């Protein structure tokens, strides 16, 4: 509301000046001789241009498909894991399109980083076997996923593996450790002696690396990870009728690959851009960035064989999964009735780490008025296998947006007020590396979008971007609907009641490090958003789309089961492009600071409910904090902000998230510096540092830990004061 | 040179546009109806205004003294140690002047911080005695300085003490530890068993706190500190004829007080503004911020008695001082011939720490065009006793500048383009607290000046400010000379040959944390300078003006021996005010990036000479670093920078120093983040992190320490690349 008011006031003032000018100097004189910077100063979003953009993100007349489909087909022809020949092919493809003289950008280039990656050995594939006491192999886990089409048979399909898990040959009795959370191992350890065991865990509940890092202290020597049919397939398991290629569900041999590293960015060059300046290979181990023991992911077909034969007590109810057997802890090891009785599970892992050159492909449309202010639109380019959804849906959307905007620029129809940078990040799958390395070198940007694609829009962001997402999504038709907007469709699936706005779609926050926004938000404090189309969560319990990071995430899968007709891709391209144009062209940045204040108030309310009473018993007052400048002051100051010039307001809005950065707030959490959105393990909808410090102090009851709670209150108070004074009128 | 060229191009462009406007729209129309922002856009420094300013910083016709003398007299009437009643009186005095309706600023206010300070106990003064084995007191060190005038008799003169040194009652045999450097104790320990001893050390060579921190690990239980006549008085010792009140030299009973803490800023709220949000009193000890053992400073009158009676071997030649006796190590303890034979030295220290409210007094002249860009002029206000030179010379200069500028503003003659903030910092003497707490809350400023006053200008700064200091000092007459400028006088005392400019005055760098600039440079990366008038170093070996931090630093002392007629004060006020107006009014900020590049090149050349050969033997190449973006790239990019708008160039110039910040560069050095100017113990004129890491690695020969050298090369390389790309044309 405030921003709207400000915008009104400001536009009025500017228009008025121009009015006087014209009136005074007379209309008869040719307007072409006005100094060009006068027109520039008042350049704002052109709604007609947005309409034109929306119509150019076309449906093909031939097949009534979104015309970006061919881009998607091209991008997903072969596997393109980071630094592979397929990756290089996508680099060339993008460079060619971004340099196209009719529809390309002003400039495009490749940006290389020397980054630390981990691969299996094609000559000596990783192997998981059940071996009896005489070393006879009783059972061997499938080496690669079962092929249904040529896509799975491509020689570049990488064997499923746990990137950055060390090589090694651990052997031991098998135990079932649920999701491999710290609490899971703690409970398991009460019944089973874990020393020398191999743990089998399922995806979900804890980060990938955590499943090994949590088990190692108990003496676990190796870890298997699989996706339980309950978590991904609504329990379905048969590939003769139920799973892909008959549906979107994961086939029994499908395996989720992934990075088993903790930080975002290249781990040998922490806080530095990776330009051959390796710090030390010990660093990764030293900082507990990687699993200390070998790990291998496997399909549920094999996990079924192993888990259903385990001995020992039955695991608790919430540890049970989709298999038609009781999940036991393990004796440790197998049931005495099992053919595997008395046998070990053995892992032979041959992963190796290596430094390779990974490329970001960058492109730019230069701004006409404020070329030194940047709006960044990014998406990663590397996949695990063909990556039809992750990431090629997003890449094809980005390419289609650049085609339409590039054509408008080349035809002289448009040039944005601010510069737009497009980033096709490399090596995301290994730990958001390309985008993080990029940010480690740069410091002055505005915003970043991400997109993937399928039943409703899903958007996360810092709260100040909510408004522009709403505005853009109201102007785009929902897939398959002519009269229903993306916004109106979204609000049906997911909504909340805002004290300011009433019923609105529910946006997520950018907590943690889920995708390439991480380094922008947490490291640089740049207002960011992450948008996608997603499935209907009332109809499935799948924790993610089932082919995620497997050899089945192909064009065939995407076009049959995720987005037939690519209509959601089209809607995302229109919405994202609309947002992008608004960010690049608005005289006043469409970032709403009162929406930020609303979120901070929610967080504060939650913190008071959760912590205040107990903190008082420790002599720590939250009242002081809130008086001394928490949300109340924030809003008051926001309401007082009446700066006179667009530039000043824009700098304030742009720098708002920067004010929340504190490089000393989370000494134990590499890369996190944003005190509002940092990753938190406490799982509370409130300030992360406070929540984690409180949980730790409550559990240890150490005075020093309560001091740390006090410290986090101070950090917060100062950050919020700082943000408020950033928005306040200049003194 | 480049900047000059740019300025030419830019001014031409702007003037040209205006020219067209006027030409086209005709001159007959009233120019009063031009929109006011058009005139604003091209507002630049007005040389006539500068002349007016210089003439208004007047000499009184009555006594031909600088008219600011009465301000100085007023400020130094009573002792005004931080948070004392005298301090409050200066706060009120400044507020009154800055709120004066005819000559005050636009606004002035008090800004309070709750800071951790340390004081002696007036009821139980600290005591140093020589006690014999039967506990008889054979000798007692003077409690307070000998009074010569009423100034020294004022009841608020604080007893000499070592702020932050802990209370305690250590007793032991005395040893002489030279300057208390780590190397001094190491050498001494080879001859004397230091366990249980009291060390007497002299000022200089190591920081105050370091003299205790270095000794404690060898078992030293207490430390005395004194100023040797050789280091301050060119050997003179007699107050009947040689020292103050007969000259500027330190009387025998004079004692330098000081803060014995390590960090800058309030030490209980590291990295946070001190607003009652104390972290923990353990923090100071934990972080090794303060001496672990009691310390007391004493006069050389007493030190003479103690040192000349010491037993043991004669200390090395370079440990000898100004006393007419041989400085022995100590037996430990006294000579067998001495009346003190077999006696101990005992310290009874009653210092106590307490949190008190300390005030900065802030004032502002608001900018007309860019009120959100700030030039900061600051000086601390608190003294140890009367503080005539430190800090009142600077405060009187600041007040005289604000009187002249304030009058011009109130008369409607002038308003700066950018806002000017004046800061009268509190609690500097306790560790630069007021200014550091201020910076911990703020982030967007341009520049800071400091001034004190006496034979030649002395200036330090980041290299980019050299040019504006030269320009201003060429326009001001040197004290006592009508035809010699401050610049021409300066170059006679101290000069160097620059590859670009030829023979120029020598400016210092802002390394370490000598004064209030520290937090601005090292914590926030703000281009800063520190200017003063100083004595002729060819005529004395005094390490600082002799009355520094003693009860003799009074108006009488200043007016008789430092600056008779206050002519140097006047010259400093004119020079500093001239610089200030240029920074606030220039269309393009007068910050010269090529001068920065020249300094970086010097540093690089030095680093190559010192380190390259040995680094090669460790497989670490500096060549790579320099190719990948050290100074060569910096200069190339600087030469390519042709941005079109003043705002963009100014942002780039303003943010240049910010690009050198890396909060992770010096994990062991609290508060230092500027990779070029951070404090360094290696004492080499080159990059501090590299120099220190190299020295450590060379001494330990640990591979991990060589890795840290490699790391610092990477940090440097990235910082310089970042700075270069900050200056490069926008992509």
Automatic annotation (TrEMBL), chains A, B:
Cofactors named for this entry: Zn(2+)
Determine if Nucleus is one of this entry's keywords: no
Tell me what this protein is called.
Aminopeptidase NAALADL1
Its membrane topology is listed as:
Single-pass type II membrane protein
PANTHER family reported in the protein's UniProt record = AMINOPEPTIDASE NAALADL1, N-ACETYLATED-ALPHA-LINKED ACIDIC DIPEPTIDASE
Q: Where is the PA domain?
A: 172-258
Q: Which SUPFAM superfamilies does the entry mention?
A: PA domain (SSF52025), Transferrin receptor-like dimerisation domain (SSF47672), Zn-dependent exopeptidases (SSF53187)
Record bears the keyword Zinc-finger? no
Location of the Transferrin receptor-like dimerisation domain? 642-727
Which key words are in the record? Answer: Aminopeptidase, Calcium, Cell membrane, Disulfide bond, Glycoprotein, Hydrolase, Membrane, Metal-binding, Metalloprotease, Protease, Signal-anchor, Transmembrane, Transmembrane helix, Zinc
